[in-house]
Design goal:
Oligomer: homodimer
Largest sheet of chain A: none
Strand content of chain A: under 5%
CATH topology of the largest domain in chain A: Tetracycline Repressor, domain 2
Shape of chain A: globular
Number of strands of chain A: 0
Number of domains of chain A: 2
Structural class of chain A: mainly alpha
Largest interface: A-B, 52 and 52 residues
DNA sequence: CGTGATCCTGACCGCACGGTCAAACATTTT
DNA sequence: AAAATGTTTGACCGTGCGGTCAGGATCACG
């Protein structure tokens, strides 16, 4: 037994790296598609091409896999917001944020759904992370937006609700993918191109001072 | 044994009405909070104040409860969209739709989350209903919106994505309630008032020809 | 009051789940 | 080549799940 419980502990061997990666990828598939309780270890094991006990050789428990996924997700998930530059052009900064978020929905729909599943069910295993760094970052960026508004550089709008609307409209394409697919009879690429045009338009109109 | 499997079958006695109601209400609580697999019959039974076998006296299975909830949900869920009047004023019609949807998120958050849970996980027990009446209705209303645009009465925007954005922004307040609560430090009523103002503003700006 | 229909429950069943473990297998080190 | 370390697995365990059933309690009604 070599596994330590530490989340960030650098895996020593190549085989550990490969297997941990495979497990987390399979777990992401299952958790995002069926929720935490809906996903089973056997399912994850099969998807990862490993046996169930072998999964538990690399991770102490099902919760541990889920926790690691969520934990490593939050950071990258907030990066686009973090990248909003107070020194940049207000409208372009916010629009760039919209586009980055939309691209994340296109390129990482599983991560979006994992997140959505967790929040939907009351964030039972996420808890303080939301009230913590997320709220801090959001409040910080809202202050920037409020400042821009005070300078008359974008239209006055409740910054928090503006951010909510950006989250909602962009993540919708990942979280509700089956619905979107069913209603739009076209390929994913075309869907996202059209969505980009649409969101660009409405936020440009919305933000114009 | 008196129960027939029919979904619309009118319950004969008062006690049947009361208990079926209580069960469906408890089931809605559980399913919306934990997803289909996450909810257990014992949990639902406790919430309904009945014993587990008694639940299965009124419903043949857990799936049946879930199916009945979803089935009776879809109709009322689409009513606000159905109410869009081609003969009315375009901007006001669409804004009224936005407000109705937002009110549904405020007044029926459990239903919204039940729906979200189902779609998120690929609509495994919903299936053709989406491709059926939902798509039909949406396409119909999109045609109305396209007509309005052709007449120059509202701004040209992809109608499907417009509807997606309305769904996303309004349902967000129900589906991601814990996140919204955590970030906004205020009561629910104030949240929804602010959201109404915000959405009214952005869609007014967006739709103006 | 009696009697048939309806309503309710404790005890139980089979199964699948998360997790354990001892032992086999593989790889590296000495 | 053998010892030590690291990796994998089949078999197993306890629990909680959805669901069943025989029979008891309760009700509606003649």
């Amino acid at each position: 037994m070599t596994r330590d419980g530490r989340t960030g502990g650098a895996p020593r061997t190549r085989i550990q790296q490969r297997n941990r990666r495979a497990i987390l990828d399979a777990a992401l598939d299952c958790f995002s598609a069926h929720g935490f309780r809906g996903a089973t270890l056997d399912q994850i094991a099969r998807a990862a091409g490993l046996s169930k006990p072998n999964l538990l050789y690399y991770f102490p428990s099902k919760d541990a896999m889920h926790a690691e996924l969520l934990s490593s997700l939050l950071t990258t998930w907030l990066d686009p917001l973090r990248a909003i530059d107070p020194a940049g052009d207000p409208v372009e900064q916010i629009l760039a944020y919209v586009h980055r978020k939309l691209e994340m929905s296109r390129d990482y729909p599983r991560e979006s759904r994992l997140f959505a599943n967790e929040i939907l069910q009351g964030a039972p295993r996420f808890g303080d992370r939301i009230g913590g760094e997320l709220k801090t970052l959001v409040d910080e960026k809202c202050a920037v937006i409020a400042q821009w508004q005070a300078e008359g550089r974008i239209a006055p709008l409740d910054p928090h609700h503006l951010i909510f609307s950006i989250w909602a409209t962009t993540q919708h394409y990942a979280d509700f993918e089956v619905q979107v697919d069913e209603i739009l009879a076209q390929g994913r690429a075309a869907q996202f191109d059209a969505a980009a045009v649409f969101l660009d338009t409405i936020y440009r109109r919305t933000l114009r001072p």
